[in-house]
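Researcher: Last one for today. Full complex below.
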Amino acid sequence: MSETITIEVNGKTLSAQAGEMLIAVTDANEIDIPRFCYHKKLSIAANCRMCLVEVEKAPKALPACATPVMDGMKVWTRSPSALAAQQATMEFLLINHPLDCPICDQGGECELQDVSVAYGSDKSQYVEAKRIVFDKNIGPLISTDLTRCIQCTRCVRFGAEIAGMRELGMIGRGDRESIATFAGQCVTSELSGNVVDVCPVGALTMKPSRYKARAWEVIQHAAIAAHDSVGSNVYHHTFTQQVMRTVPSENDAVNECWISDRDRFSYEGLYSDERLTQPMLKKRGEWHVVTWDEALETTAKILNEANKDQTGVLASANATLEELYLLQKSMRAIGIDHIDHRVRQTDFSGQNAAPLAPSLGVSLEDLEKQDAVLLIGSNIRYEQPMANHRLRKASLQNAKIMTLNPYHIEFNYDTTEQSVSSVAEMLSNLAAIAKAAGVELTHFSNIEVDEQTQNIATYLKEADQALLLLGNLATQHPAYADLCALAQLIAEKTGATLGYLPEAANTAGAWLAGVVPHRQAAAQAVQTMGKSAQEILTDSTKTFVLLGLEAEFDTDNPQKSIQALAQADNVIAINSYVNPRLKEYATVLLPASQTVETSGTFVNMEGRLQSFKGVSKLLGDARPTWKILRVLGNLLDVDGFDYMSSEDVRNELKVKLEQTNAYQAEASPEAKPMDIASSPVSEHSFHRIGTVQMYSGDSLLRRAIALQQAAGDERRRVTLHPDDIARLDLGDEQTVSVAQGDSSVRMSLVADSAIPIHSALLPSATQKSVELGSAFGMIQITKG
Amino acid sequence: MTSILSQHEREEIDYWLARYPEDQRQSALLGALRAVMHHDKYISGEKVAAVAEYLDIPKIAVYEVASFYSMFELDKKSAARHSISVCTNVSCMLRGSDDVIAYIENKIGVKEGETTSDGKFYFKREEECLAACVGAPMMQVDHVYYENLDNEKIDKILDGLE
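Model: Here's the assembly. Have a good evening.
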């Protein structure tokens, strides 16, 4: 291993590891050296020359970013020769850089500006013409002002090394060099926004927030991103109490210094016209704006008078831990047992075997130390991008990343094996892996182990650190319980860890807070077993309480959900948005907060509790959701609703959680083969793969304009295997008719051999899927 | 998807690929672009994409290299049967390269940076020294250097081309 050596910088003795770059040592010791192209998470380019320092016995100044330290090395960062070198570099960099800081979006937070003030000169010898570079449109998220580029290539290296897809490049030569994409394409990486952060100048800026506020006008608030279970640490920047933009907050244990585009640009949805800003009641079919008192009293009256066994409560797992806890506490106190957050799940038969809360099983940091990972029903790249980033790092260290999915997924790294089969066959494929691993199965006796399944089992067995992960698609799979049971058996047999990738920002929190029908908060036993989300969303429920849900988008079977809600006597929607469909079926609308407008806590995939404060102003008469629930609890005469702050709520739950650390779930039920027909009923029948597209997962995302533009047409399409298209003679068709249940829609048709035969990729949570049924059910595709 | 690369282009790329380690496919890039240039007289966007696919490297990485070297033409308008480059750097300029250019422009009827209407000549605007100062003034026609130019010699060279 590397030995510890000592070097001397500016007369100060420092210890360092042999082979470290000088700039890493000075950074660790808080000695400032200016730099542009060096970035601690990227490879070394040494092309900007800004970090030149004087090194003893070196005839000329050396770049600190590319000079390895040696024992006894003497360095001066502010000596006359170092300063002269830095000043000359600065003058050189400014030759072609426009002096347009007053109209530059980066002005005030610009590395070039800062370094220029600290290390540059106030005059330049250059009097000739400056070069200009034409800007390029690289998509709806990033603006380019390429004349300002100083050719540091951080954005190019970010694409190649972190995003895993090289989209930006440096084209041309000499004074005609320019950053560009190939053939003017848009950048599509799910992490693309980070190039704006790594860009040291104003050449790449965020398009949605461009010119909205100056860096010195905004107030920075630490927060937690709300769109996946990584719980990325972010800063929201507010101006006049509105969120202007979101940037990463560095936390090496969670998101390092990156965030996904989804977490960065979702704030735009906050200011949608569809925000619900006033409490409203439907009286004789007409909507009326009412006072909060009237709205809440009516709500309490409805709930008090409702038949409790015919009342169902559904909550979004994007709600905070406090909101979810208060919701179930008040509802259970008045005798409502039917409470759930698992609105996309369809198989609940294994729920008693579920752990205290779904968790990764290892820390996010340890994810990159795995030697073999099997992703079961997961498109982790688009569902939990920052967790995928850790897997990518593991993959680059030769870890074997394997998948079991109903379609082939393009990852931004090499996967060792991708087992692709129809939704139904996924289960038998997992059983085959179990068999190959040496698990004795009572069912699945006829299953055959092929080379691929054998490889997967062998890799899991041989690895020092192996991990099985059940993803979003597994959770929504019609045989989720069987997948879990098999995964558990494989984990036991191979010595692998079994982990879950929770679907939403606070799915783990929803389990802990007791927003499940079979467990109270902190997994305490329930008096009466409640109904699951799927059982709630039926005609037998006459009163609904919906927290933060748009049932037509957020549930597994929109057709059935809308029908159930339409026949109900009362639907109380506590929501920050309203849409025409919601207005049809709801009877009470209570305007609630979005995550950034309230204090609260999310529990991420590691089980990490991360609390945050409200950062932006609530719109109209909307109130923080936890306060709405507190008042509702009081109006329902429930004891113990005297909380002064959301911290009080969290602390109450924390105490309960401390008592249940050693929670033991029941043993898994035995895995059985799926009884749904594995062969299609007619030649037009297809197994639907109803995944949720990256930018459709919640109400806020669906209204974030730039992200919606970036999402493109993917959601309006149905994708089939080319052979299926040929078989049904659909080759010439632009659009096809897709029928499911009792309605049909027309969608554009796309061919992709990533989809297995007899399967169709048809995303959920879209304007089209609202008309359709279960996300993983059967659909009929015909001409027309 | 079948590649739009010609048989010859693929053979040429395979020849270069064989000379480098298997995990260093990008090493064959210059050879590949030379083959495309030889075949098409310019490098189209489609061919950039095809080369990238053949070598399994990002398209932008191919485009970076294609746009870096002045021997690669990316504009279809530059695709002529013969490419003429007259060196105009210091030594050649002192030895009369301006007259050489004027003579050629007059002879083939197009200005520097243009292609003749019959597609025979592309008169390239040369940017850098071609490293043949000893024989100034000089020009490069296709891959061949011609030195110590005078009008008679230019006539002979250009008239001798198909």
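Chain A touches chain B through 14 residues (CB under 8 Å). Chain A has four domains: 4-94, 280-348+506-658, 360-500, 685-783.
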